[in-house]
Amino acid sequence: MKYILVTGGVMSGVGKGIIASSIGTLLKSCGIHVTSIKIDPYLNIDAGTFSPYEHGEVYVLDDGGEVDLDLGNYERFLDVTLHSVNNITTGKIYQEVINRERRGDYLGKTVQVIPHITDAIQDWVERVAKKPVSIDGVQPDVCIVELGGTIGDIESMPFVEAFRQFQFKVKKENFICAHVSFILQPGATGDDKTKPTQASVRELRGLGLIPDLIICRSTKPCFNVEHVKKKISTFCDVALRQVLFMHDLDSIYKVPLFMEKQGALNFLLDRLNLPMNETHNRAFMKQWKKLSDKLDNSQKVIKIALVGKYTQLSDAYASVSRALIHAGAYIKHRVEVTYVEAANLENETKLTDAVGYHEAWQQLCRSDGVIVPGGFGTRGVEGKIEACRWCRETQKPFLGICLGMQAAVIEFSRNVLHIENAETTEIDINAKEPLIVEMPEHCPENKGGTMRLGKRTTIFKKDSNTSNIFKLYGCRKNIEERHRHRYEVNLDYVERLEKSGLKFVGTDTEGRRMEICELNDHPYYVATQFHPEYLTRPLKPSPPFVGLLLASIGKLRSYLDNECHLTPDESCSDNDSDDLSVKLQDLIVTSTNSKIVVNGEV
Question: Which residues are annotated as catalytic?
Fold first, then answer.
């Protein structure tokens, strides 16, 4: 097993997750099986109780693990299925060690950070690194470990010490440390300042980890790359080929290509003594190059309004924005997302902030399509309901996700069924007309990890043959998507809703939970209880998002009539013999046992 540890210097949020994902992508291009581990040095057991303003979105895995959003990047870049154990936190490590102590595993010894905590970290990494994550079930060859935070943080010290020991345990030829550090570019001087990076590397070395790669992050391209490279090489004691540069690019999917141009792949293969599969590499990277070209060359723009509660931080909706990018690339369109604060759409806001109210409605009116994503709490719910009403009445393409589906059901009940007191018990526990109710088996006192989480099966009803979303999913009887919710549609109202035109085309396997609703007399009005954005991939876009974008440009009907094939002028493929030109439903994997064979490759 080979290990690559990715650390960060100077400041947090420097882009370690994208760098780690890109390193994995380069290795995967050679046919090497890669897995990833994210270490978060906070005391929380998982990310489930975080506010989106703290760390961005909470990403959900197949097994129901609520984890850091970087695991979403790993899954999307590497097209793998990770597990909750692939996210290590200080809370998990200490919990495991304390449980061992209570069982008497340490035979009366004094339990200390060294060796017990550091040993537990090393054991966890070695154990998880061997866990298969790819569809073929093969044990990984390389494990990429991202250490969150910044070198020097007190909370990450046990992990740094664990890897100082670990490098000797697994032998130096099987271990790489890649340090991602920031290059300051003060506007007053106009040059590139490397002193913070030098200090960061010096601290890393002082803690016993010697960087094999130094990735220099910057906002703009360095003014004199060769000069900066020589300076870092001299003062940080690395060869010139071990210094890479990465300025802000207009797409994260260009990062692997940019790193490969600088010789990163060749260095990794040489340093870890890994084989190079030239044929596989060319075919794999060609797909990434095509994706990059489509993102660059897409002249047509689709404007999507995202009506959310956490719009001040775009990372709160990271997977949704990625899903839109993937779907846009698939149909050769560029997607511009406008974040609309849900609370600003409410009538009460007109009295307190008239400017914000009118600006929010202008943003909504200028859009080609609307997404109402998930969320928790009472703030902004009425604004989401207003957005659902407007989309329904104006025939604007609409996609509701989780809370977005619940808002659509409440809006329809109020304005079509004329149930004035229609409400969710999340807002009013004593609601007279509870259209949305709490699931009894998912509402204990503890908030963390107690929702309906992870991959679940959705069954399409027998009378769903005319459904847009049914066709987008390839007319399959059932699909599998990931969930994260505590509230659901009240079954007592389903029959009345369906008789009035809001069809629940998909349910859970027992038919007790409504999973998908859709309006038939609308270009595209679809809402899902599950989160389709969690399973999107750069080369495998999520069907509900593809449907939204096609409806937004008025081409959904022709796409569905063409059996979910793009017409020649819209096709995401060209005439190259090795192109992956397949239907959308051929790209969808519904279980870990499924396989896709395209041009002889699994």
Answer: 402, 531, 533
